[in-house]
Amino acid sequence: MELRELGGTGLRVSAVGFGASPLGHVFGDVPRDAARAAVRRALDLGINFFDTSPYYGGTISESVLGDCLRHAAVPRDQVVVATKCGRYKDEGFDFSAGRVTRSVDESLARLGLDYVDILHAHDIEFTHLDQIVNETIPALQKIKESGKARFIGITGLPLSIYPYVLDRVPPCSVDVILSYCHYGINDTSLVDLLPYLKSKGVGVITASPLSMGLLTDNGPPDWHPAPEELKSACRAAADHCRKKGKSITKLAMQYSLMNNEISTVLVGMNSSKQVEENVAAAQELSTSGIDEELLRELEGILEPVKNMTWPSGIQQA
Ligand code: NAD
């Protein structure tokens, strides 16, 4: 598995990252044996980057990922573990200094770790961004100084949140950003922001190459926030691939992996089969390249919904 530098952190992360939200049963139940097998297989195939959050499954994802990593007996310095703070299933959003400071201790206990490699403020568009700038980032920096998190980041859907925050905090105080659903076959809008992020020295993580299930044969979960027009175009794209005996998931993974300015592509996985398929997609990309003909066909089908997204967060003043 290819390793890529993550901004200026010095971390080298696998191009395919393990998104652990499915381990919180976010996309359906995952038996513990299947979760352990998926994480074990991921490690065996060279995946070293794991992402979770207290929000996923109301803390279940963190506890299960911690259990799976312990069960795999992987040396701590061989894995890069990211979690988040500020978004909770029962409490909603709380990016106050007090809450995020307590949050990291709770996450470490659930994960069974002494430190996380990355601590993100999770979905920051759900609070006033000035709170993130003036209160949350300074609190995360104190956590970083304490050694409980090696690096800090911010996540969220609207791309405008990143320059808003990065232009207002001291240089190098945010190490990484995690953007989702904006670098895949149907939505490439993150690409316009990459030169800016590079100029800020910020590492770029992209998540949801399958658009949270839109670009899979099974389709998205009920809670998927995409407008119906986008869902039906993605369904048509998946049908097209199926009729040709091809996999939309493989093509979508490969598409997101093609851009080397993105350090890692987080894909949510719940079984060793999915791990094997996604790693195989990455390997095939490096040896044979992408199926250009199928890509053009899918881009044609998805053209009417290109970069279509959905509202997320509060109205910023
Ligand atoms: P995704 O696009 O990775 O899709 C996940 C879905 O695709 C799951 O249902 C999974 O079972 C399925 N899948 C994966 N591999 C497959 C395969 N080979 N064949 C068929 N189906 C397959 O969406 P995601 O899980 O939401 O995103 C990935 C990860 O990124 C998350 O788990 C999370 O760690 C992170 N993330 C973070 C944020 C945030 O911070 N705001 C938002 C979204 C995602």
Name the descriptors.
10 helices; two-stranded antiparallel sheet; about 325 residues; alpha/beta; 8-stranded parallel barrel
Question: Can you walk through the features of this model?
Answer:
The protein is of the alpha/beta class. The protein is 39% helix and 16% strand. The chain has helices at 32-44, 60-72, 97-111, 129-146, 161-166, 194-199, 228-243, 248-257, 272-288, 292-302; strands at residues 3-5, 12-14, 16-19, 49-51, 80-85, 87-88, 92-93, 116-121, 149-156, 176-180, 203-207, 264-268. It has an eight-stranded parallel β-barrel, surrounded by four helices. Strand 9 (149-156), helix 5 (161-166) and strand 10 form a beta-alpha-beta unit. Helix 3 (97-111) packs across helix 4. The radius of gyration is 18 Å and the shape is globular. The model has no long low-confidence stretch (mean pLDDT 96). Nicotinamide-adenine-dinucleotide is lined by residues 19-22, 27, 51, 122-123, 155, 178, 180, 207-213, 216, 249, 266-270, 274, 277-278.
